[in-house]
Amino acid sequence: MLGPVRQLLPAGAYIYQFKINSKAPFVGAGWSWHQDYAAWRLADGLPRPDLVNVGVFFDDVSEFNGPVVVVPGSHRDGLVTKAPAPASPASHQHVDPQDIALTPEDMRTLVRRLGMRSVTGPAGTVVLFHPEIVHGSATNMSPYPRRLLIVTYNDVRNMPRYAGQPRSAYVVGRDTEPLQPEDLPLAVPALADSAVGVPA
Amino acid sequence: MLGPVRQLLPAGAYIYQFKINSKAPFVGAGWSWHQDYAAWRLADGLPRPDLVNVGVFFDDVSEFNGPVVVVPGSHRDGLVTKAPAPASPASHQHVDPQDIALTPEDMRTLVRRLGMRSVTGPAGTVVLFHPEIVHGSATNMSPYPRRLLIVTYNDVRNMPRYAGQPRSAYVVGRDTEPLQPEDLPLAVPALADSAVGVPA
Fold first, then answer.
1. Residue A84, Cβ density class (10 Å: 0-12 exposed, 13-18 middle, ≥19 buried)
2. Cα separation of A36 and A82, whole Å?
3. Which pTM value belongs to this model?
4. CA–CA separation, A5 vs B175, rounded Å?
5. In B, residues 58-97, which contact A (CB 8 Å cutoff)?
6. Is A63 close to B63, i.e. CB distance below 8 A?
7. pLDDT confidence band for B199 (50 / 70 / 90)
8. Which of A90, A150, B5, B23, CA to CA, is 20 to 30 A from B13?
9. Which pLDDT value is given to residue B200?
């Protein structure tokens, strides 16, 4: 995945966040309309939206299990909400989408102009998306899970500027060395006593 | 709408329920998976599932504003849940879908076999559906409303058998005379002082 990321962030990229967004069958909740960068500017003082999200589908995603829904092209406008941080955020470790939710009026205008599109596909699908694209999702009413791995790469020139205590290391990556692709064959461990083992 | 209804209920049909199911933009809630007839048997003692639902879209319905989602063909199996009424229902005037919700296990089996389909289309679309089709819906995350008129016709030989106090007349229709189509031109009232008025 590093290849396309380095095309977008040629100065070098490191892993800023690595998370699995899991929506359970029947009960998985929706997410309010928001822009990721609004959260990261707020929580970690990231100076610029120079990041790339890479989403990897662990499950088939359809209209029924709460796909991410984007407003196509909305990332070209920058941050929609210029408002300051909420006085009492829902969490200090995690920026709740509700705290950075776009207003109904802003959403009406945006969607009238640009429409909506759900991001669907079979398990294994990889999608890249901009940290300022407006997106949200509905509930998962289906009997199927919707687990989405999201790896967020940050530009090495775009380091967090923490106002106070930084968020935990399991929320925001501390290793900011630029990642180097290894152009080597995948090392597959030999499977002892297995007829289908690949020689090491 | 009475034409196709009378094809399905040739002994005669009357209006059992007439309601608008309104899902507001951004906040409209979902409905658990259920079968309508389970509610009507429970609340009004309807002997048989001899009813027809006619849905009329007041708004464009897409995957984004909480469409009804059906399990196609599920009405052929009759009631999935044979369980008795819940001991403490959520409401006495209205059977909450939660009280008659299908179990996750039943839903997994059904959907694996029959799949899911969302009922979408432009405003003005009319859909007929069986009172035993398994259906539900997700939240409305879009900036658009989703208002759905549902007229439920009951067979005149399938009268309610109330165990106690009948539900209010605004919930369950009292006029059980079989409806007769009027094959007459629509009477349009004249619009006084209007250039676009239609002559009476």
1. exposed
2. 14
3. 0.85
4. 67
5. 63-64, 66, 69
6. yes
7. very low
8. B23
9. 42
- What CA–CA distance (Å, rounded) separates B39 from B101? 10
Residue-level pLDDT at A72: 98
- Sign of the C-alpha dihedral computed for residues A91, A95, A98 and A104 taken in this order: positive
- Is residue A159 within 8 A of residue A19, CB to CB? The reply is no
| Residue A44 parent element (H or E) | helix A36-44
More confident residue, A94 or A26: A26
Residue-wise pLDDT for B98-117, tens only, equals 788 999 999 999 999 999 99
CA–CA distance, B136 with B102 (Å, rounded to integer):
10
8 Å CB contact of A137 and B142: no
Interface of B with A in 6-25 (CB under 8 A): 25
Q: Which of residues 98-157 of A touch B (CB under 8 A)?
A: 104, 107-108, 111-112, 116, 118, 136-143
CB B41 within 8 A of CB B161: no
Encode burial over B11-31: b for 16+ CB neighbours within 10 A, e otherwise.
ebbbbbbeeebebebbebebb
Structure confidence at residue B89 as a pLDDT band (50, 70, 90): low
Q: What is the ipTM metric for this complex?
A: 0.83
- Which residue on chain B is closest to A65 by alpha carbon? B138
Q: Can you tell me the distance from the alpha carbon of B153 to that of B133, in angstroms, rounded to the nearest whole number?
A: 15
